[in-house]
């Protein structure tokens, strides 16, 4: 299964990244490149909308952790939305869930 990425501008300093398909060792580089481009801009907040993400592997997790660290250095944040149970379970297993900012909708984010 391939990974499809759609980037939506929400407000000036925030982008919503919609993921669908599978984020694994075959597709992680695609997300990494998209995130790298966003981080080079004035973006401070990224929301990963995982509504249609069916699978995530450790390679995908690495991209997410790297993104979270980079945004923290920019005094920004990484938010997660619409985690499917099987994806949420992966985050629980590696014990990252307590450090994640999970939201129900984009309006929950306080923008500067």
Structure overview:
The chain is of the alpha/beta class and 112 residues long. It has a single domain (3-106), classed as STAS domain (Transcription Regulator spoIIAA). Helix content is 33%, strand content 35%. The chain has helices spanning 28-39, 58-73, 85-93, and strands spanning 3-11, 14-23, 45-56, 77-81, 101-103. The protein has a five-stranded mixed beta sheet. Strand 2 (14-23), helix 1 (28-39) and strand 3 form a beta-alpha-beta unit. Helix 1 (28-39) packs parallel to helix 2. It starts with a strand and ends in a 9-residue tail after the last strand.
CATH superfamily placement: STAS domain
Number of strands: 5
CATH topology type: Transcription Regulator spoIIAA
Report the top-level CATH class: Alpha Beta
Number of helices: 3
Compute the average pLDDT: 90
Distance between the termini: 38 Å
Any idea what the radius of gyration is? 13 Å
Which SSEs are present, and which pair or pack?
Blueprint: E1 3-11, E2 14-23, H1 28-39, E3 45-56, H2 58-73, E4 77-81, H3 85-93, E5 101-103
Parallel strand pairs: 2-3, 3-4, 4-5
Antiparallel strand pairs: 1-2
Can I get a quick summary?
It contains 3 helices and 5 strands; from the N terminus they run ββαβαβαβ. It is of the alpha/beta class.
């Amino acid at each position: 299964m391939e990974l499809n990425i759609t980037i939506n501008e929400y407000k000036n300093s925030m982008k919503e990244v919609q993921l669908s398909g599978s984020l694994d060792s075959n597709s992680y580089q695609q997300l990494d490149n998209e995130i790298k481009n966003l981080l080079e801009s004035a973006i401070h907040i990224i929301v990963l909308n995982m509504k249609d993400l069916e699978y995530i592997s450790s390679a995908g997790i690495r991209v997410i952790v790297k993104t979270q660290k980079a945004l923290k250095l920019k005094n920004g944040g990484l938010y997660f939305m619409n985690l499917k149970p099987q994806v949420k379970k992966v985050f629980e297993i590696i014990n990252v869930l307590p450090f994640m900012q999970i939201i129900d909708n984009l309006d929950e984010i306080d923008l500067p």
